[in-house]
């Protein structure tokens, strides 16, 4: 922004010599910070006008002024309203024919009338209606008739849409390439119509319980264009239906059968005809050794395999599969707790071109296995080692994977600075680092990471008790950082937070729960500098009314968790809630429910804010560790994370 | 009424117990049923029923039934609290009253009347024959059958009248044998000519009585009565009939005349003259007239053997010349049953006299059709942008899939906010009573609209035609519309063009 100003001020009209197209090209490069374009448009009238004509994508946080905004940006083709709380039918009356893509996900209040407005966008090619629960067949019928050019349609969780609506889509929108029908109450009736679509490439039928073998066996031909099929959680589809489907859809490249029927020899045999199959997802299924062996035999072009949370994955089955499929690029064996170092040895031996290996909670794999990973799989870009026995030796070895972009080392108690410093030095492309509860980590590691991995975007240092402000100060140099989780770091103070706020302008998600030394002096710079902040967790900090109220100047703030703030008064909270106009979700202590004026709660809810009242007793850290110990047995750090 | 019922019941129990002859099993429910039926007769057909009673109580007087009926009447008259012992005393009394010259006179005059009517009918047939000479022989046969049947009934009545002079011992035999052919006759043909005055002035009343009787009967008679189908079910039967592919000649074609088709009843009680739609109902009714009608033989479905004898399947022709259901039509498609004939004739060739009170638009000629419509009227209206309504959603979607450019119109949602759902609500409402409603009101006046939706649409329909509202309509700017073909599409486009704006700006809540 400053650059622009300095250039425009001395010779005022020089930009007039440039054609719009050239300025558009320049603007195309202003993508890093959404505020950059805003600054550009504020320079002068002609810049404002150029920027108005340049903008193609609009992703507003509020829908109130949509009509005016659409007038200002006449060439918007992609409208994403998924972040807007409470979009009403009437706010969509302004939709114009220029729009090519509309995302209305999470607009749960939308009714058929809104769908009728969408149908006015005759050139629409992509439409997401995820979780639009109030739209029915009638509304979808309007869209089917109006938007004949639709290529992508997502109706996930649109519970009001059934066979008739989907059937009409299949009849009217012949251009459809991608169709998401997850969790719809549809049956075999419309599926046959859908599968007759000439260009259908991507079909998601996750959780469609109404679909069973009968319809699939009725399928004789067609769907030759189908490349991606997701039949996760289709409980009523067995290998019988699948084999008839695979014989009809011979071009399938991606197949998901997660949480479905047992993966045995019969099911694996039905995949035999899919010579082009590249990826299979079998998450959460029961897997037999023979099934895995057969998959290894049949699927010659397999590059991706997900066995996350599968039961029955053994060293024998997995080893035989990976030795046959040496081209594997991605492998997910999350929570396969019976595999050992032997499996890892086979994987690393044969699949040397792996780019992604996820093995969270493979607790029976010994430490030496991770040395093998580093030695043999040097193309790894993603590595999930959460809850594993990896030690510093392993980390040192893994640091050879110079392409590594995502590394998860949560709940790895055996790692220390010694290993992690290697990562910081070697993995310069690291974007995501998870050190959740890896308690051996200190400031030294973070210093090395911040210095070496300058493109880092997400870091989780939750419950790394030794982390101090020094870490945060060093992280403030990472300008791309957008997510910082530093729960339960008692040594962090407002000073460190201010440094991060000033340095990391992209910060959108901040979790400082249980950092008792952070108070209002940390909030004020945060409110001032982190204008992109969308989500914050302030529970168990020393923030008071003043700090919370200052956050109101962050216009993007949508999600806030405020539990157990000692210095918070009901009136202060009420003022802060009223001032933060864009809130969509607020987690509060249940005791506040009675203390807040009901009119304020009503008002906020009408603005689209959802309240979650929590009635938790104050937990000390020791209690937390105890809970951790009891839940670790279940594996899956996420589950624990959600619980706490 | 109550006391009367009780008496009837008492009478029945006693009289039936006095007859040691074959009683139908399950006597108790039967009697209670009888009293019920008795009640129906008494309550709703009282006005004309009494006159019939007068006429017909003498009709078959010699029979035991008659006597028991008379006994009943006398019971009712004489009763004053001591009816317990009265029965035994009363019995000899009837013997004396058995022969009543006045009754004889009455019967004779009635017979005379019937003969006259029969003569008229023959006249009519003669006239018809002159008009249409090329009628097939089957009609002739049919007419002959009709006349012979009527004649038989007259003869039977004559005999029975004469029989009253014979000694009473023979009564039971003679009466049962005398009456059964009459009943049969009623089952085969329609005695319009015989009892022309029955029920016709009071159709509705009679229908009601019979309906209730039917329901009673169907529940009672269950398996035996496969012929007693509800009228609206027959509609589908009528349709199914279309697909039936009988080779011509493999069935016998019967054709009823218009008058016969439109007659409310086909089966009449020979004693009291009450009309019934079904023979089974009549048989049930007959039990009220005496013990002899309670025998399994009397209650059994008559003609079973004779009907099985006839190998030829019976099919029916519509008397309306030129109708596809008329046997002279090139692509003649016969009707399966008499009820099919009745429904077909009423639906196709009669005025639609029943109007739906809710929408004031739909008219029907068969009452059952109206009732079926009323069940759905106003609800579940699935509306297409072209103005066509559907009672079923899948039909609407089938329609939309078939035609280019047709869109489902969003139905009015009672729960939704008026201001928000402006356009669709209007469209839905417009359609709902578009026939009777002026366009101006629903389209341009929000305030009025709310009233309309609150009120009964029928009460509003006429109001909106007043000129003031129509003239107000012209004050509003009207957007141009391409298709002003049908009046309805014109209304729609007018409303749609204007209202979204209206809805948007008049709703401050949304702008907040």
From TrEMBL, chain A:
SMART domains named in the record: LRR_CC (SM00367)
SUPFAM superfamilies tied to this protein: F-box domain, RNI-like
Domain (F-box/LRR-repeat protein 15-like leucin rich repeat): residue spans on this chain: 97-239, 312-446
InterPro entries from the UniProt entry: F-box-like_dom_sf, FBXL15_LRR, Leu-rich_rpt, Leu-rich_rpt_Cys-con_subtyp, LRR_dom_sf
Organism domain of life: Eukaryota
UniProt cross-references to Pfam families, sorted A to Z: DUF7885, LRR_6
Protein name per the record: F-box/LRR-repeat protein 3
Organism: Abeliophyllum distichum
From TrEMBL, chain B:
Ranges in a coiled coil: none
Compartment list: Nucleus
Protein name (database record): Protein SENSITIVE TO PROTON RHIZOTOXICITY 1
Domain C2H2-type: from-to ranges: 267-294
Entry annotated with the keyword Metal-binding: yes
A Gene Ontology molecular function term of the record: zinc ion binding
Keyword Transcription regulation assigned: yes
Record key words, sorted: Metal-binding, Nucleus, Repeat, Transcription, Transcription regulation, Zinc, Zinc-finger
Domain of life (superkingdom): Eukaryota
SUPFAM superfamilies on file: beta-beta-alpha zinc fingers (SSF57667)
Pfam families noted in UniProt: zf-C2H2_STOP2_3rd, zf-C2H2_STOP2_C
Basic and acidic residues biased stretches: 1-12
Sequence segments annotated as region (Disordered): 1-33
